[in-house]
Amino acid sequence: MGVYIALLCVGVLLVASYLFLRTKKPSLVAVFIKIGASLIFISICAYGLYLHHYVILPLMFVIGMVFGMLGDILLDLKYVFPEQDKMFTYSGFITFGIGHIFFISGMFRDLYHNESILYVILPFVFGLLMAVVTLLMQKPMKLKYGDMALIVAIYAFILFSMTGTAISLSILNKFMSTSLILLTIGGALFAISDLILSQAYFGGKEKNPIVIILNICTYYSAQYLLASAIFFI
After folding, report:
1. Alpha-carbon radius of gyration of the chain
2. Fewest beta carbons less than 10 Å away: which of 68, 83, 112, 182?
């Protein structure tokens, strides 16, 4: 556990450094520090993969987290190069969505063992329901998706399906699996992080330091919890 704790401490320091720079002004230096913080959660997951002798779930999570890091880079570059805002936003949504698909696939591959098909269907029903809610809440939350409404809905479906998968499998296992509990909490924090992020992207609060801090703290907490879950499979 010494390696895991050391990586976690370095990750926390990098996230704190990123927040210090990001709340002042977007910059390439901040982007590189964020990449470093993302490399830490990938390293934690890769170490779990090594300890478990390359079973499928940790491998899928490592791949998913690599896509998460790429999404990090793309979404931060939209602030560094605002004239290409839309391209980076679209690319970031797509990249994160692919990462969530790897998370979902890994969880079903290793943590679902041909029990009731209901536990497979419900996460996607939940994802679809939340995608609809995301669109319907646009006006009440004072958001403006504009021509990005479709990609927002698709991403919301994938994101909440991932969170729903962790919840569904936790219920299936009667909350007796530490790994699934961490995945459930991590998935929930991921969803909360993106809900906060929507205030920055579509609510005109991209420069609000509280929004930035809450988004980054919930996002990295989610990624570190998802990576840590690998140790308890």
Report:
1. 17
2. 83
Could you tell me where the beta strands, DSSP code E, fall in the chain? none
Q: How far is CA 46 from CA 51, 58, 112, 172, in A?
A: 9, 7, 22, 27
* 182: alpha, beta or left? (left if phi > 0; alpha if psi -120 to 50): alpha
* Cβ partners under 8 Å of residue 177, min gap 6: 111, 169, 170, 232
Residues 6+ apart with CB under 8 A from 114: none
pLDDT tens track for 204-218: 787 788 888 998 999
CA atoms of 196 and 119, how far apart (whole Å): 28
Helices (H), 112-172: 118-136, 149-172
* N-terminal to C-terminal alpha carbon distance within the chain: 15
pLDDT (tens digit per residue) in 12-28: 999 999 898 888 877 78
User: Tokens standing for 220?
Assistant: 């990295």
Q: Which residues of 152-171 are buried (b: 16+ CB within 10 A; e: fewer)?
A: bbebbbbbbbbbbbbbbbbe
For the chain, domain boundaries: 2-232
DSSP class of 152: H
